[in-house]
Write a structure and sequence with these properties.
By secondary structure, this protein is an alpha/beta fold. The chain contains 15 helices and 17 strands. The strands form 4 sheets. The protein has a 6-stranded parallel sheet, with helices on both faces. The relative contact order is 0.13.
Length: 399
């Protein structure tokens, strides 16, 4: 169990500089933030620190600027939005590992926040350069990692800085992410149903193998279902199939028994640009000139019933090409079924990435127990892999 900001004493908080690693990697369009979900998710930790008299100095990455400054990936718009959401002054410094940034951190008045420029403008960030980690440690008196979405990266600002700055604790968002995902894996209320979608079985193979012993049912959707279809000897037409994973899919089916459930019908069309030709067919009815682009209506209904009977539901990956109607219906059906299950007392967890985007698109984010802010991090957590940004934090003393 990792220490959190709640475990710090008043003496460790009041007046001290809290170096807070957040995940403000938000979508932007020409300098305008199009979705501020990740900024909002960090507000409880920042508010907690301010209320305890700490002075938050905030780090984050944005995009992939490849280790050098790029105005397109500046965090300046984030500073402006953060100030609007918090209702306080948020200072911004256009550098990170400089004397200017260090001085600004020391000069930060109580009741204000300081946001420093994109950590990925620094060449040593993604290589976890020890010199950079030491320089970042000069920016705070203790370290708070609230960036679950970057916790699977062993970068200077997520894992390296901890070697030089203690205490090093989890923020409230990190705590919430680890609690929901951890409880789902270790102590779920049953029945426990997992829903996995997406295009490739290769990206989910470790998750499937990790979840199978733990779940009561594993519902498969998305194009990855087609690799399983091929393993069953079914026609898949022009559907995406990972030929080099067919034998692996067959092995999984053998081991899973009745716990792994495949779609029994599909929405097919000659291509995405042929939506008008979309039709529903049984899984043994995919034509040679067609591709499966969504689960079918019958599968949507049966998956919704399985979700309705569950006490814990974990979802990662869309059921079809949800950006293109009518191939969004399966994904929408899962989102609606999970929202309904939440109202009836089930714990519903959306594992970030495309699933989170789909839920947000349907306006259902607040209707889930938890929507993870980290797609890649949640996948690696579900696979059972250690997350470097979490492993480096202080352990809570056993009581």
């Amino acid at each position: 169990m990792k220490k959190t900001v709640r475990d710090l004493t008043d003496a460790e908080l009041r007046g001290k500089r809290a170096l807070v690693r957040t995940d403000f990697n938000v979508p932007m369009d020409d300098g305008r933030i199009t979705d501020d979900t990740r900024i909002r998710a960090a507000l409880p930790t920042l508010q907690f620190l301010l209320e305890k008299g700490a002075r938050p100095v905030v780090l984050s990455h944005l995009g992939r600027p490849k280790g050098k400054p790029n105005e397109k990936y500046s965090l300046q718009p984030v500073a402006k939005r953060l100030a609007e959401l918090m209702g306080i002054k948020v200072g911004f410094v256009e550098t990170t590992d400089t004397d200017e940034a260090t001085k600004a951190s020391h000069d930060l008045p109580a009741g204000e926040i300081l946001l420093l420029e994109n950590t990925r403008f620094l060449g040593g960030e993604e290589t976890n350069d020890p010199r950079l980690a030491r320089a970042l440690a000069e920016l705070g008196d203790f370290f708070v990692n609230d960036a679950f979405g970057a916790a699977h990266r062993a970068h200077a600002s997520t894992a390296g800085v901890n070697a030089h700055l203690r205490p090093a604790v989890a923020g409230l968002l990190m705590e919430k992410e680890l609690a929901y995902l951890g409880n789902a894996l270790s102590n779920p209320q049953r029945p426990f149903v997992a829903v996995l979608g997406g295009s490739k079985i290769s990206g989910k193979i470790d998750v499937i193998e990790s979840l199978l012993p733990k779940v009561d049912a594993l519902l498969i959707g998305g194009a990855m279902a087609c690799t399983f279809y091929r393993a069953l000897g079914l026609e898949t037409g022009k559907s995406l199939v990972e030929e080099d994973r067919v034998d692996m899919a067959a092995d999984i089916l053998d081991k899973a028994g009745t716990r792994l459930i495949l779609p029994h019908d599909a929405m097919v069309a000659p291509g995405l640009d042929s939506a008008a030709s979309a039709r529903s067919v049984g899984r043994d009815g995919i034509g040679t000139h067609e591709a499966m682009l969504d689960i079918g209506p019958g599968t949507s209904e049966s998956y919704a019933r399985a979700i309705a009977s569950a006490r814990t539901v974990l979802w990662n990956g869309p059921m079809g090409v949800f950006e293109t109607p009518p191939f969004d219906r399966g994904t929408r059906a899962i989102a609606l079924a999970m929202a309904d299950a939440t109202t009836k007392g089930a714990t519903t967890i959306v594992g970030g990435g495309d699933s989170a985007a789909a839920v947000a698109h349907e306006g259902l984010s607040d209707s889930m127990s938890h929507v993870s802010t980290g797609g890649g991090a949640s996948l690696e957590f579900l696979e059972g892999k250690p997350l470097p940004g979490v492993e480096a934090l202080d352990e809570k003393a056993e009581s």
